[in-house]
Amino acid sequence: MTLQFQTPRGTKDILPGEMPKWHYLEHVLRDIFTKYNFREIRTPVFEDTDLFARGIGGTTDIVQKEMYTFLDKGGKSYTLRPEMTAPVVRAYLQHHLGQTKALQKMYYIAPMFRQERPQAGRFRQFHQYGVEIMGTQAPLADVEIITVGVEFLRRLGLKDIHLKLNSVGCLVCRPVYKLELQNQLRPVLEQLCGDCRNRFHTNPLRILDCKKENCRALTEEVDPIDNYLCDECKSHFGEVKALLTEVKIPFEPDKRLVRGLDYYTKTAFEIITDQLGSQDAICGGGRYDMLAKEIGGDAVPGVGFAAGLERLITVMDKAGLFPETDPHLDLYLIGLGDAARSWVYRTAMQLRRNNLICEIDYQQRSLKAQMREANRLNAGFTAIVGENELKNGSIPLKK
Q1: pLDDT tier for residue 123 given thresholds of 50, 70 and 90
Q2: Alpha carbon separation from 375 to 144, 328, 330, 382 (Å, rounded)
Q3: CATH fold of 329-398, please?
Q4: How far apart are the first and last CA of the chain?
Q5: 19-173+229-319: which CATH topology?
Q6: What is the signed CA dihedral for 13, 148, 170, 112, rounded to 10 degrees?
Q7: pLDDT at 262
Q8: Average confidence (pLDDT) over 80-96
Q9: pLDDT computed for residue 328 by the predictor
């Protein structure tokens, strides 16, 4: 029989048997984040639509094609968050976090929403973890953000990870490069794909990130942005690379790496793996020194990354890196007869208060059926309680 109601396309239920994997990743994440002195932040799942239009960029694919937007009863436009950096910066400004502490280090583990074509490792509701450092332009902050991302993946046991690195310039030098990029691509404009022809006029840097082979071939010989960086951006990028070398994190310069969000300035990076095919990035981020100003606040420098948990679970499953996560049950209590069942219920409650994981039967099944259930639940011990056990005050435990 086909059920009338099922999960919406592009979403999935996370069933009880799958949750140990999520708990494991979240535990490792929180442990690493805490050691680096990041503190958790939680924001509403929906925000003013203009926050994303202004923050992410009105010409980005996310804003133009992928946002879940709705009007409330008063006609106000809201959007389910497609990413978390803009909401975090909004919260930083709204609650004056820069006044209470000059440097803010925050992390999140939360659901996001994008109306994109579902495919392996991509969903319309998905979960991201990420970190943000706000209040400093220091290259050391960029390197710490990258270090946290790499350390987490290494701790999980992933071996085939690579850091790709670029600088996308700033408001001084990037416009110069955009004009030069348009000049170099204008002769082949009609040969670009439809999306890239649109990007040529709105955001030409995104053409470099196109995955279509034809566009990649046409842009292979264009000048890299390195040639157009201002002195400040060159110095910043040089320090980032030197510090990464100092902490022994290898990296690969990638002139095509521009990221899909308009708020990035200077450092941009991705951590990739070969195990996801075409969608190989499992973590990405960079610096966003002008985002706070774009959404109506004073300019506050920031840097961070985000990564998808569903995609990471796919990689972990393929690599067989999850530890054994059989559910642990300390004791299964079996009561035979009304008096014993009442005693079992009271005793189970008391044992649970003392941090033992206990289970009992709720359906007055036979002894044989309850023993099978205890075995199915992998109980450490089983106690069978009847009239004699109650009378003697002695309950034998079976392992």
Answers
A1: very high
A2: 48, 12, 12, 9
A3: Rossmann fold (3.40.50)
A4: 41
A5: BirA Bifunctional Protein; domain 2 (3.30.930)
A6: 10
A7: 80
A8: 97
A9: 83
Mean pLDDT, residues 20-43 taken together: 97
Burial call 121-160: b when 16+ CB within 10 Å, e when fewer: bbbbbbbbbbbbbbbbebbebbbbbbbbbbebbeebebee
A 10 A CB-CB count for 364 gives 12
Report the Cα 41 to chain-centroid distance in Å: 14
Beta carbons within 10 angstroms of residue 279's beta carbon: 15
Q: Spell out the domain ranges in the chain.
A: 19-173+229-319, 329-398
92's enclosing H/E stretch is helix 85-94
Q: Higher confidence at residue 314 or residue 326?
A: 314
232: helix, strand or coil: helix
Integer CA distances (angstroms), 330 to 20, 334, 369, 381, 390, in order: 17, 13, 19, 6, 21
Report pTM: 0.91
* Cα separations in angstroms, 299 against 38, 136, 171, 198, 296: 22, 11, 13, 30, 9
Task: Give the C-alpha distances (Å, rounded to integers) separating 172 from 25, 220, 232, 247, 304.
Answer: 40, 25, 10, 30, 22
Identify the burial level of 287 via C-beta atoms within 10 angstroms of its C-beta, where 0-12 means exposed, 13-18 middle and 19 or more buried. buried
What letter represents residue 213's amino acid?
Answer: E
d(CA 92, CA 94) in angstroms, rounded, equals 6
Task: Say how far apart CA 287 and CA 302 lie, in whole Å.
Answer: 6
Q: Which of 131, 142, 134 is nearest to 103 (CA)?
A: 134
Q: How far apart are CA 385 and CA 389, in angstroms?
A: 6
